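ugh ok fine here u go
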Amino acid sequence: VFVHGAGGLFPENPFLESLADTYRVIAPEWPGYGESSGEESLEDMLDFTLHAWDVVDSLELGEKPHLMGHSMG
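structure:
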Protein backbone atom coordinates (compact mmCIF):
# COMPACT_ATOMS: atom_id res chain seq x y z
CA VAL A 1 0.00 0.00 0.00
CA PHE A 2 1.66 3.21 -1.16
CA VAL A 3 0.66 6.25 0.85
CA HIS A 4 1.10 9.68 -0.70
CA GLY A 5 2.00 12.64 1.47
CA ALA A 6 0.61 16.14 1.70
CA GLY A 7 2.21 16.99 -1.65
CA GLY A 8 -0.23 14.86 -3.58
CA LEU A 9 -0.77 11.65 -5.47
CA PHE A 10 1.42 9.18 -7.30
CA PRO A 11 0.75 10.00 -10.95
CA GLU A 12 1.47 7.29 -13.51
CA ASN A 13 4.63 5.99 -11.95
CA PRO A 14 7.01 3.57 -13.71
CA PHE A 15 8.28 2.32 -10.33
CA LEU A 16 4.80 1.36 -9.15
CA GLU A 17 3.97 -0.10 -12.55
CA SER A 18 7.08 -2.32 -12.46
CA LEU A 19 6.22 -3.53 -8.95
CA ALA A 20 2.72 -4.41 -10.16
CA ASP A 21 4.25 -7.08 -12.40
CA THR A 22 5.10 -9.08 -9.25
CA TYR A 23 3.10 -7.61 -6.36
CA ARG A 24 -0.38 -6.35 -5.65
CA VAL A 25 0.16 -2.57 -5.66
CA ILE A 26 -2.41 -0.29 -4.05
CA ALA A 27 -2.06 3.51 -4.15
CA PRO A 28 -5.30 4.99 -2.78
CA GLU A 29 -6.32 8.62 -3.04
CA TRP A 30 -6.75 10.12 0.41
CA PRO A 31 -9.67 12.41 1.20
CA GLY A 32 -9.30 15.79 -0.49
CA TYR A 33 -6.94 14.55 -3.23
CA GLY A 34 -7.49 13.43 -6.81
CA GLU A 35 -11.03 12.28 -7.50
CA SER A 36 -11.95 11.74 -3.84
CA SER A 37 -14.94 13.67 -2.62
CA GLY A 38 -12.93 15.86 -0.28
CA GLU A 39 -15.87 15.91 2.14
CA GLU A 40 -13.79 14.16 4.78
CA SER A 41 -10.52 15.67 5.92
CA LEU A 42 -7.54 14.21 7.71
CA GLU A 43 -6.63 16.82 10.29
CA ASP A 44 -3.73 15.15 12.09
CA MET A 45 -1.59 12.02 12.12
CA LEU A 46 -4.13 10.13 14.23
CA ASP A 47 -6.84 10.77 11.60
CA PHE A 48 -4.43 9.73 8.88
CA THR A 49 -3.46 6.54 10.73
CA LEU A 50 -7.06 5.56 11.42
CA HIS A 51 -8.02 6.20 7.79
CA ALA A 52 -5.06 4.15 6.51
CA TRP A 53 -6.07 1.29 8.81
CA ASP A 54 -9.67 1.47 7.53
CA VAL A 55 -8.41 1.23 3.94
CA VAL A 56 -6.20 -1.77 4.70
CA ASP A 57 -8.96 -3.45 6.71
CA SER A 58 -11.62 -2.91 4.03
CA LEU A 59 -9.36 -4.46 1.37
CA GLU A 60 -8.78 -7.54 3.56
CA LEU A 61 -5.03 -7.47 2.93
CA GLY A 62 -4.21 -9.71 5.87
CA GLU A 63 -2.33 -9.02 9.07
CA LYS A 64 0.96 -7.73 7.66
CA PRO A 65 0.58 -5.54 4.58
CA HIS A 66 3.53 -3.35 3.65
CA LEU A 67 2.93 0.41 3.89
CA MET A 68 5.31 2.67 1.98
CA GLY A 69 5.75 6.18 0.74
CA HIS A 70 4.51 8.72 3.25
CA SER A 71 6.54 11.94 3.06
CA MET A 72 6.15 12.63 6.78
CA GLY A 73 7.64 9.31 7.85
